[in-house]
Amino acid sequence: MAELMGSFTGFELDGDLEDPVPAAAVRLPAPRLAPPAALAEICTAEPYDRMTHTYGQAYRDLIRAFRGRFEGPPDVVAYPRTEPDVERVLEWAERAGAAVIPYGGGTSVVGGVEARGLSQAISLDLSRLGQVLEVDPTSLAARIQAGAAGPVLNEQLGEHGLTLRHFPQSYELSTLGGWLATRAGGHFATLATHIDDLVESVRAITPRGSWESRRLPGSGAGVSPDRMLLGSEGTLGVITEAWVRVQARPVHRLTTSATFDSFDAGAEAVRAIAQAGLHPSNCRLLDAAEARLTSGGDGEHALLVLAFESADHPVEPWMDRALELVRTHGGRADPPRGPRAGQSGAWRSAFLRMPYLRNSYPAIGVVAETFETAVTWDRFPALHQTVSAAVREVARGIVTCRLAFVYPDGPAPYFTVLTPARRGEEISQWDEIKAAASEAILAAGGTITHHHAVGRDHRPWYDRQRPDPFAAALRGAKAAVDPAGILNPGVLI
Amino acid sequence: MAELMGSFTGFELDGDLEDPVPAAAVRLPAPRLAPPAALAEICTAEPYDRMTHTYGQAYRDLIRAFRGRFEGPPDVVAYPRTEPDVERVLEWAERAGAAVIPYGGGTSVVGGVEARGLSQAISLDLSRLGQVLEVDPTSLAARIQAGAAGPVLNEQLGEHGLTLRHFPQSYELSTLGGWLATRAGGHFATLATHIDDLVESVRAITPRGSWESRRLPGSGAGVSPDRMLLGSEGTLGVITEAWVRVQARPVHRLTTSATFDSFDAGAEAVRAIAQAGLHPSNCRLLDAAEARLTSGGDGEHALLVLAFESADHPVEPWMDRALELVRTHGGRADPPRGPRAGQSGAWRSAFLRMPYLRNSYPAIGVVAETFETAVTWDRFPALHQTVSAAVREVARGIVTCRLAFVYPDGPAPYFTVLTPARRGEEISQWDEIKAAASEAILAAGGTITHHHAVGRDHRPWYDRQRPDPFAAALRGAKAAVDPAGILNPGVLI
User: Fold this and answer.
1) Model confidence at A356, in pLDDT bands (50, 70, 90)?
2) Which of B279, B310, B472 sits opposite A481 (nearest CB)?
């Protein structure tokens, strides 16, 4: 693995494989909180549960777990089986003055599920609320519990010939509730890019009652209640279920890839496609380094992965026009094929494998970080250049970029950083990279996150990004439904 | 006019044309508020200004103005020229304890701009902040002031070969700020149905500072600051400008119309088209009565107006597939043509003429109301039936329906009610119709409004529709940025 990584990256890795600190050797601080008898059945303070609910899945999390550093575990992990269970946990937490951190698949890469700096904390694991409850085949919608992970909900929808088609990179572990709370990005590179776009209604339990919107295909009745919960990251309520839009499985699919002499030329083609109103399902542009690392690219050309899909009609006219735009902008395209063919298939496979590969970085001595943003097209070339340069300067490693999502008015660039670890100093290495990236993004007019959420890691830059009166309004909203401030304190507010 | 209306509707109108009370005969209550000297230049208490800012454009408003009833005019009308002017008006209002009602084109049909029940009120007319300030041709976006009315902003965008393509029925008078504050519905029957979908960032002045989001094509950084302003109906801040997505003018356009034996059969075709992912620009289904009234229909068949448009590519493949779906569902379609042809052209012309025609209703003795909702497909047939029946029972006139917007998971039905007036009792007639319609909509699972906003007229039903903790959160948010509660009190909160 270290050799493979070395050959790909050119890093001179020492080849030593460090062993993780075994779980049995980890000493957790004693729990500072004990559940009341009535909740004993759904609560535990077992070290295994506390350890597995201490961190998310950022590299910063992996390295701490690897080294056996579990300094801020939750005191208790609760596994509610019903909504009344959730309510009882909130009541208890309010009485006890303990924080409640809603926990879905635990795949946050921004410190979203971590009890960092909290004096008493309950991790509220929603995995037992994990079923598809109802399907409306007429409206193409389904009522799904928050704790349902990607494969589970899609399997259950599949029994009805339907699919949510929301596939974040964390798909195998992450949950509907987590996607909603963090405004997750999914499968589609255009149009329904965020889970937000698939929501009919959301139901959440707050310390002051249940917050459930009416199930509607669209509405203009005042400020959207759903949009206030979307992205609230557990600070306003515990999302327990939602009605979401589903669809028939696509039967018409075309995929191709195209190469460009430069990333900028590829970006111009992507802009043209995004502004043409063709709505490809995939339209991801990889720079030459990323294409080489993940898709067998030659290291000199940018690679565009382009796909159209439909459950209703053949998509040739859409693909044909997109390929005209590719050629107009100097791209050389392969003939379109069915799905998972050629380089685009290689990319997809690498995309889904990536989170698992990453788990080996602490052992082989590589520091990794991925971060992402969105910016308007007029500012994109400068953002790409300044962010890459700023990160390269502190990381002294490889910095690659792809356009993960595209809009008519701008792309969502996604950056990957890999650098040899200074063993024992990985966290400060990572912190320096995160700070350099975030500063450069804000300076270049981007958002601190397009789909990874804010969590605790992005807070300093998020606080500068958001308008002050909005921050005051959000605090006011939270105080009204969570007066004791127990819900995921430290995130957003 | 009365004869024409009688022949169309079958109403036995008396033919008497009542004259409106002339403006000179109207006696307004004396203003209870005088602007400070520093604001004298941009404020007026002239009767003409106060009268023209008393009401919106609902029938309920027209009939009161017609009868010379201006019981709750604003005390002062302010015409800010700059954002600092807006800030100064807010400061004065807070000191004086006066309400501030942001006013765009004054086309609210829900009592949104009315000082109903307020003891001191300033109408804040934004018409002098009415320019396109900046165009970004690369990202296809423009920075536009809130007071810009539809024709003005489109003319200015047209100088760059661009258009916003947001055409509500009130287009000629209504403004960008009004659209944003009320989540207005526009041109597109699918996809970008609301102005919400065209927003990059919003700037508003609150009593506690300016609320301006970063200009972004997409973001997942916490709760959306823009989505909290969209639909806030002037309660959180005075929207002064926004960056919006614009586009090249469409050059490829195909329009057709199709007839169906029943509205339900047509609705099934519309559902199929909406769920096929074809994204027509127009997909409006008129019931037989509405088709006869507005589009020369035979009174027996439902009429579908269907159109596709693109600035980039010919739209034949899209139209062809949609027409296949029309035929599959028993529709008989005309061959597609360029825009504004045949019945669809007649409908468009009637659509834009309608608000002007309506101005004559008080004179000829007709009570009119239009209301709209959205509902999921599974509930639509029952909603259509129960709402129509409930309104017909109290209105004892004509009730027609069209599907104005369509989503994969449901339509937005739009109802028109016409009935002979009991002269002098029109307001209670209207109130009865509004109450019957609203009760039936809520009972059938619809939203109290899809794109007309809440205002003061929909408040009782809106309060029942929204989740209680959300209402508390919204009040908390408002208290943080508008602690004196001066911004459009009575609307939403």
Assistant:
1) confident
2) B472
Long-range contacts, stretch A389-394, CB < 8 angstroms, 24+ apart: A389/A440, A390/A436, A390/A437, A390/A439, A390/A440, A391/A415, A391/A417, A391/A433, A391/A436, A391/A437, A391/A440, A393/A436, A394/A432, A394/A433, A394/A436
pTM of the complete model = 0.96
A contacts of B410 (beta carbons < 8 Å):
139, 216-218
Quick one: tokens of B267? Answer: 């609705």
**Sequence-ordered list of residues with C-beta below 8 angstroms from that of A353, at least 6 positions apart, any chain:** none
Give pLDDT, residue A341: 47
- Longest CA–CA separation in chain A, Å: 70
Three-state DSSP class for residue B410:
strand
The set of residues, in sequence order, having a beta carbon less than 8 Å from that of A145 and lying 6+ positions away, is: A126, A129, A130, A131, A132, A133, A176, A177, A240, A241
Residues of A (310-339) whose Cβ lies below 8 Å from B: 310-313, 317, 321
Please tell me the predicted confidence (pLDDT) of residue A360. Answer: 86
The verdict on a CB contact (< 8 Å) between A231 and B216 is no
Average pLDDT over residues A416-428: 96
Handedness of CA B316, B319, B325, B329 (dihedral sign): negative
In A40-171, DSSP assigns E strands to 43-44, 76-78, 99-103, 121-125, 132-136, 141-145, 162-163
Q: What are the backbone dihedrals phi and psi of residue A131, each rounded to the nearest 5 degrees, phi first?
A: -120, 155
Backbone dihedral region of A349: left (phi > 0), alpha (psi from -120 to 50 degrees) or beta? alpha
CA within 13 Å, CB half, B20 = 15
B200 shares contact with chain A (CB less than 8 Å): yes
Grouping H, G, I as helix, E, B as strand and the rest as coil, residue A253 is strand
The whole-angstrom separation of Cα A250 and Cα A253 is 7
Judge whether A223 is closer than 8 Å to chain B, CB to CB: yes
How close B23 gets to chain A, by Cα (Å)? 34
ipTM of the complex: 0.96
What dihedral do alpha carbons B170, B171, B174, B179 form, nearest 10°? Answer: 100
Is residue B125 classed as helix, strand or coil in its secondary structure?
A: strand
> Nearest-CA neighbor of B287 among B173, B204, B192, B387?
B387
B43 forms beta bridges with: B78
Helix (H) or strand (E) holding A418: strand A410-420
Is the Cβ–Cβ distance between A378 and A444 less than 8 Å?
A: no
B134: how many CB neighbours lie within 10 A of its CB? 11
Give SS3 for A136: strand
Task: Report which of B196, B199, B224 is spatially closest to residue A182, judged by C-alpha positions.
Answer: B224
pLDDT at residue B349 above 90?
A: no
Phi then psi for residue A39, to 5 deg, are -105, 0
